[in-house]
Design a protein that fits this description.
Blueprint: H1 17-22, E1 33-40, E2 46-49, E3 52-58, H2 63-72, E4 77-83, H3 100-111, E5 116-121, E6 134-136, E7 139-141, H4 142-159, E8 163-166, H5 173-183, E9 192-197, H6 204-210, H7 230-242, E10 246-250, H8 256-265, E11 270-274, H9 276-287, H10 293-307, E12 311-314, H11 317-326
Parallel strand pairs: 1-3, 1-4, 1-12, 4-5, 5-8, 9-10, 10-11, 11-12
Antiparallel strand pairs: 2-3, 6-7
Helix pairs in contact: 2-3, 3-4, 4-5
This protein binds ligand PBG.
The site of ligand PBG has 12 residues, from helix 6.
C-alpha cells in the first residue's frame, strides 16, 4: 500500500529541536568562514565604516588584537584589503614591500601564525583611476595588467600570505600568477580565484570602505554581466584549467543558482562571497528593528551552504562564530 496521509506525516520529524537537528541536511560551521578585513596606512587607526556598521578600517599596528580575536573565535582565515596612502596610474603601492597589506600580513603572522591570511589581488584600491587594471587610451589593458597582478601576488607571499585571491577579472591572470609563484619557488601557495565575479551593485559599501570606486566608467568590461550563468561555468572552467585551487562565486545571495550550477559541474572547493551590500541591507533592517539579526544571518549563511558553497566569505563571520557557539 502506498503511504500517504494520514499514515505519512512530515511533521513527525519536526517535533523537537533534537529531532530536527538529527535530520538536518546542511549546516554552517565556523570552520567554513573567512572574515574580510580592511587595512589602512597609518598608525592608531580603528575607524568604523558608515555603510557597514560593526566593520572597521584598521592600521597595521591595530591588527594583532583583531587577529587574536578572530583566531579565538575559531575563524580559520582572514581576507585582507588594503587602502594605501598613495595611488598612481599603475597602482604601485600594491606591490611595494612596505605597502599597507604587506605590513598587515607581517603583523598578523607574527601575532597569530596559525591564522590563515588570504589576500585580495587587485589594483582598484591602488590606482588613481580606480580601475582593476592598467588604463591605456581609456580602456582597461588586460595583458599589461597581468605582470602587475603577478607582482602583487608575489609580494604578498613574500610578506607571508598563505593564499592569494585574484579579484580583478582580467583574462589569464590565474595562469600568470601561478607561473610567477612557481618561478619563485612558491609552488605550495594556493590560488583562490574570484572566478565568477559579477558587475554588481551590491559592492557599493565596499567601494566606500576601500575608496576604490572607478573615477570614470564602470567595471562592466571586465566583471561579468549579471544575467549570465553559462558564462560563469566557462569562467570557472578556465580558471581551473589555469590552476585555480579554489573557485569563488560573487556576490552570493542574488547568485545562489550560480553557486548550485558550479557545485553540480565541478569538484573543486567552492567559495561564495556574501558581499558588502548584502551585509549592509541586513544591518540596516536590524538597526530599525525590522529583522532578527541572529536568525537572519544564520539562515542566510546556511542558505549559501545549501546552494553548494564549502566556504563563505562574510562580514558577519565574528557574530556568526559567537552565535554558532551558543545555538
Ligand atoms: C576588488 C574587490 C571588490 C570587492 C572585492 N574585491 C570591489 C569591486 O570589484 O568593485 C567587493 C567586496 C564586497 O562588496 O564586499 N576588485
Amino acid at each position: 500500500m502506498m503511504a500517504g496521509f494520514p499514515q505519512l506525516r512530515l511533521r513527525r520529524l519536526r517535533q523537537s529541536e533534537t529531532l530536527r537537528a538529527l535530520v538536518r541536511e546542511n549546516r554552517i560551521d565556523v570552520g567554513d568562514l573567512i572574515y574580510p578585513v580592511f587595512v589602512v596606512d597609518g598608525k592608531g587607526i580603528r575607524q568604523e565604516i558608515d555603510s557597514m556598521p560593526g566593520i572597521f578600517r584598521y592600521s597595521p599596528d591595530q591588527l594583532s588584537a583583531e587577529a587574536e580575536e578572530v583566531a579565538k573565535l575559531k575563524i580559520p582565515a582572514v581576507l585582507l584589503f588594503g587602502i594605501p596612502e598613495h595611488k598612481d596610474e599603475t597602482g604601485s603601492s600594491a606591490y611595494d614591500p612596505q605597502g599597507v597589506v604587506q605590513k598587515a600580513i607581517r603583523a598578523i603572522k607574527s601575532a597569530v601564525p596559525e591564522l590563515l591570511v588570504v589576500t585580495d589581488i587587485c589594483l582598484c584600491e591602488y590606482t588613481s583611476h580606480g580601475h582593476c587594471g592598467i588604463v591605456s587610451n581609456g580602456v582597461i589593458d588586460n595583458d599589461r595588467t597581468l605582470p602587475l597582478l603577478s607582482s602583487v601576488a608575489l609580494s604578498h607571499v613574500e610578506a607571508g600570505a598563505d593564499i592569494v585571491a585574484p579579484s580583478d577579472m582580467m583574462d589569464g591572470r590565474v595562469k600568470a600568477i601561478r607561473e610567477a609563484l612557481d618561478d619563485k619557488g612558491c609552488q605550495h601557495i594556493p590560488i583562490l580565484s574570484y572566478a565568477a565575479k559579477y558587475a554588481s551593485a551590491f559592492y557599493g559599501p565596499f567601494r566606500e570602505a576601500a575608496e576604490s570606486a572607478p573615477q570614470f566608467g564602470d567595471r562592466r568590461s571586465y566583471q561579468m554581466d549579471p544575467p549570465n550563468v553559462r558564462e560563469a561555468l566557462r569562467e570557472v572552467e578556465l580558471d581551473i584549467a589555469e590552476g585555480a585551487d579554489i573557485v569563488m562565486v560573487k556576490p552570493a545571495l542574488a547568485y545562489l543558482d550560480v553557486i548550485r550550477e558550479v557545485r553540480n559541474k565541478f569538484n573543486h572547493p567552492l567559495a561564495a562571497y556574501n558581499v558588502s551590500g548584502e551585509y549592509a541591507m541586513v544591518k540596516a533592517a536590524c538597526q530599525k528593528g525590522w529583522l532578527d539579526e541572529r536568525q537572519v544571518v544564520l539562515e542566510t549563511l546556511t542558505a549559501i551552504k545549501r546552494a553548494g558553497a564549502d566556504i563563505v566569505l562574510t562580514y558577519h563571520a565574528k557574530d556568526a562564530a559567537r552565535w554558532l557557539q551558543t545555538v
